[in-house]
Amino acid sequence: MIIDAHAHLWKKQNGIVNGKPVFDVGRGRSDFGGEIKQMMPPYMTDGFNSAERFLANMDYACVSGAVITQEYIDGNQDEYLLTCKSDRIKICALYEEKPLGYLSGFDGIKICAGRLADKNLLNHLEPFKVANKNGMFISIDLADGDEQTEMMQKIIEMFPDLRIAIGHFGMVTREGWLEQIKLAKNENVFIESGGITWLFNDEFYPFPSAVDAINEAASLVGFEKLMWGSDYPRTMTAITYKMSYDFIVKSKGISEENKKLFLGENARKFYGFADIPTPEKIKNMVE
């Protein structure tokens, strides 16, 4: 079973980066704060990053389930994500430095900690309190390195039973990334690898340094604390969805048992997926 712990969906991109707007301009491109970026694969011509397209990618790559997180650069997608939820798809509400609104139906809360105007996490306890009270999980992308790890540790100690997934594999290519990984020494804190192929994009497939980093993290906290994430669809501008995990499957540097933990078993337990199917592999035209 393969489960994606970090993917994105949006109906209409209406985000912000460094105080400037982010919006779709067609052909999978976005105006990213004044710079044109290929935000999605070019065949997504209408700017609609839909659940239907994602499920087709999941089926093709034999991915059983996924967690939809959010980002300020896409704008709040709470309303659309409520229409996407299913047995195979879990969804996060977006925390936006204001009181949380309607949360019924959401599985978790996303905190873009590195993009907060006030980066002192101790001033943002509400989402942690709400998630803890309601049996939800927290998905959080911390600022680079150890800027927020001491504050994060204090919050973890305040809410020891709260499930927390730290994204982007601790911003693995940035100095001090292992300080984020060490937070997973706490019982209910896990690390997910959404964006790891982006962070090692200069090296490209099969991302040997990413495999090395995964093993280094595992040496600190164990493979049972690590989860795979794709960062779909942004990373699909460089690779296919299947390639975002296939480099792990084909790696000789990770045992088969640890591959199973990393690619799905840990996420199944952490997020509470139950009775989801493994899609049938369909032969493609080049096989």
How much is the radius of gyration in Å? 18 Å
Question: Residue share in helices?
Answer: 25-40%
Write the element-wise H/E pattern from the N-terminal end onward: EEEEEHEHEEHEHEHEHHEHH
Roughly what fraction of the amino acids lie in strands? 15-25%
Q: In terms of per-residue confidence, which ranges show pLDDT below 50 for 5 or more consecutive residues? A: none
Number of helices: 9
Written account of the structure:
The protein has 9 helices and 12 strands. By secondary structure, the protein is an alpha/beta fold. It has an 8-stranded parallel sheet, sandwiched between helices. A 4-stranded antiparallel sheet has the order 2-3-4-5, with no helix packed on it. The model has no long low-confidence stretch (mean pLDDT 97).
Q: How do the strands and helices of this protein lay out in sequence?
A:
Blueprint: E1 3-7, E2 14-17, E3 20-26, E4 29-32, E5 35-38, H1 51-60, E6 65-68, H2 78-84, E7 89-94, E8 108-111, H3 126-134, E9 137-140, H4 149-158, E10 163-166, H5 177-181, E11 189-192, H6 196-199, H7 208-221, E12 226-227, H8 243-249, H9 256-271
Parallel strand pairs: 1-6, 6-7, 7-8, 8-9, 9-10, 10-11, 11-12
Antiparallel strand pairs: 2-3, 3-4, 4-5
Task: Provide tags for this entry.
single chain, 287 residues, alpha/beta, eight-stranded parallel sheet, four-stranded antiparallel sheet, 9 helices, 12 strands, 29% helix, 18% strand
